[in-house]
Amino acid sequence: MSQKRDYYEVLGVAKDAAQADIKKAYRKLAMKFHPDQNPGDKEAEANFKEAAEAYDIVSDPEKRQRYDQFGHQAFAQGGGGGASGGFTNVEDIFSAFGDIFGGGGGGFGSMFGGGGRRSRGPARGRDLRIVLDLTLEEVDEGVTKTVALKRMESCETCTGSGAKPGTGKTSCGTCGGRGQVSRSAGFFQMASPCPSCKGAGQVIESPCQSCSGSGGIQSRTEVEIQVPQGVEEGVQLRVTGEGDAGPQGAARGDLYCVIREKEHKVFQRSGPDVLTEVPFSFPQLALGDKVEIPTIRGKVEMTVPSGTQSGKVFRLRGQGLPRMEGRGKGDQLVRVFCEIPEKLTDRQKELLEEFHDIDGETSGKRSFFDRVTEYFS
After folding, report:
1. 280: which strand partners?
2. Do 152 and 218 meet the contact criterion of CB atoms below 8 Å apart?
3. Which of 44, 48, 190, 281 could cross-link 38 (Cys pair, CB 3.0–4.6 Å)?
4. Residue 314, Cβ neighbours under 10 Å: how many?
């Protein structure tokens, strides 16, 4: 039996990582290895389960404490949690993490036979996923975005039932009206929606001609998405009930919007902080100056004291992005650097040469080259 990897290593976080960082790391792994994104890839499936198992432990304060103290042994058979880190079987993993991917058709259920769904009736509509591109200005202010997408809508002819108007349904002969069929998988008994009635427990006598009995027709529509302030790259926003319409009148799936930040010409983001570099001339850094610095929300005045060295980083408090958890704003970090002119006038050269001579006479400091020469002599 192969040795289990350290759960923190699996998630790619430090052992003292905050819960928010753990959750963010798991989201990225879950998106990367999700079965829907890697159909038929057994290695991705194994990585997905491993990440889910690790997240179950380190996201729970009590389990995390036991794991930090005893390692994997804390959850071995007889150790108070089962051999798979507290999960009793595969279905527990799917139900525990179904809130991230919606648990609808096209999620865990489509890959593993229902994802533990126990209720009778047709499966809810398929979840949809889109990428939402945002500028830093939109992240700063929060924004309402209208997106166009194609999704399944309830058929108007049969009002989503799938049956030809005036006809009805009969009990499914495959599952006996239960809506589920069972099969054995090793030690587990797995239940999945009936393939004949798709979990409805009934079958259509005469399918609707408009939708061929599916109850839905693909259509283009627009959806408004409320994007909160400070949202970060990779976060998924769930818009409940904006996915595909469910078959035969079942509930809609959800719409998941994955946030992606557009590259900014001036700023770089680091969590709630923003970074920028500003060029200065040698006289400005040597003598000091007051300058206007661009921020996401306009310009602010910043004082550069005399003798500032190139590479110095200044912090503008509260000029960063809003924090997702709602505790104020981050800062703006301004790195100054000395900009060397490519061309000099004769007068500029004369003054710089004079400065160089005076500086060498008054500073009393040996040059770098003098020190190097002495070292090798």
Report:
1. 338
2. yes
3. 44
4. 17
Q: Note whether 97 and 109 are within 8 A (CB).
A: no
Confidence at residue 372, expressed as pLDDT on a 0 to 100 scale = 63
Give the pLDDT of residue 213: 81
Q: Contact 192/180 with Cβ under 8 angstroms?
A: yes
Tens-digit pLDDT profile for residues 337-354? 999 888 989 998 888 888
Q: What is the mean pLDDT of the chain?
A: 81
Identify the sign of the CA torsion 230, 236, 241, 243: positive
pLDDT-derived band at 111, boundaries 50, 70, 90: very low
Determine the pLDDT at residue 2. 53
Q: Is the pLDDT of residue 301 over 90?
A: yes
Q: Model pTM?
A: 0.55
SS (H, E, C) the chain: CCCCCCHHHHHCCCCCCCHHHHHHHHHHHHHHHCCCCCCCCHHHHHHHHHHHHHHHHHCCHHHHHHHHHHHHHHHCCCCCCCCECCECCHHHHHHHHHHHHCCCCCCHHHHHCCCCCCCCCCCCCCCEEEEEEECHHHHHHCEEEEEEEEEEEECCCCCCCCECCCCCEEECCCCCCCCEEEEEECCEEEEEECCCCCCCCEEECCECCCCCCCCEEEEEEEEEEEECCCCCCCCEEEECCCCCCCHHHCCCCCEEEEEEECCCCCCEEECCEEEEEEEECHHHHHHCEEEEEEECCEEEEEEECCCCCCCCEEEECCCCCECCCCCCECCEEEEEEECCCCCCCHHHHHHHHHHHHHHHHHHCCCCHHHHHHHHHC
Domains and CATH numbers, the chain: 1-116 (1.10.287.110), 268-376 (2.60.260.20)
